[in-house]
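Course assignment 3, question 2. Fill in each field.
Student: A.L.
Task: Predict the tertiary structure for the chain below.
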Amino acid sequence: MLRRDFLFATLMVRSRTDSGPSQSVEDFSPRASAIILCDMWDRHWCRGANERVAKLVEKTGPLLIRARSKGVTIIHAPSETMDFYKDYPQRKAVLDLPPVTPPKQREITAPPIPIDDSDGGCDTPGDTQHKAWSRQHPGIEIKAADYVTDKGDEVLRVLKHRGIKTLFVMGVHTNMCILNRTFAIKQMTKWGVHCVLIRDLTDAMYDPNDKPHVSHERGTELVVEYIERYWCPTTTSADLMRVLSA
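Answer field:
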């Protein structure tokens, strides 16, 4: 039996097949795990997105505090803001790590996402796309042992250096950056990194006026279900907190 201080074996994850969802228990070691925060910016060009990110920030703080206390590595990934962090020791800590050659990519075939976000997915009329962000949301603390990066190969450096086996993914937006950034679910999964999406700490860019004409919340759920079917399992922040508090 593995030592309790090394392995917590009670995390519930959800996957999906053609026949529907399935729950299972997954073993993971906190000290061999990381949480990556994807594009939790200080400001977004879409007002609706801003409001929902602010709510996610409130839920994120307690989870990160608990995760750090158990040895989980925290990676902040606010894309296109590295100039802001160039003098941060947490940014320099990534750059000081030896480069890692990415492994051979796995071939994964998946259909298009189940929602139409071709117009940007904003649900607040009148908002126009532009770069509104300059840093990560100030409500999220960056602690001394954390890392800051927005590049997939740099994330691999951190994962190898820290011996990371499980990468928990959270942030925005589920149908865009969460899937498609170089450090996000698609690329990491193709490189063989075991990802788990924290499904209640994410939000989609989706306008209910677009197909499939469901509520914003249901649109996000559809993308989560798509990820569970084709890319990686999901869990909840409540279950992760429960495990880390045991």
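Instructor remarks: The two ends are 17 Å apart (CA to CA). The beta strands are 8-17, 20-28, 33-38, 73-77, 147-148, 166-172, 194-203, 234-235.
Grade: pending
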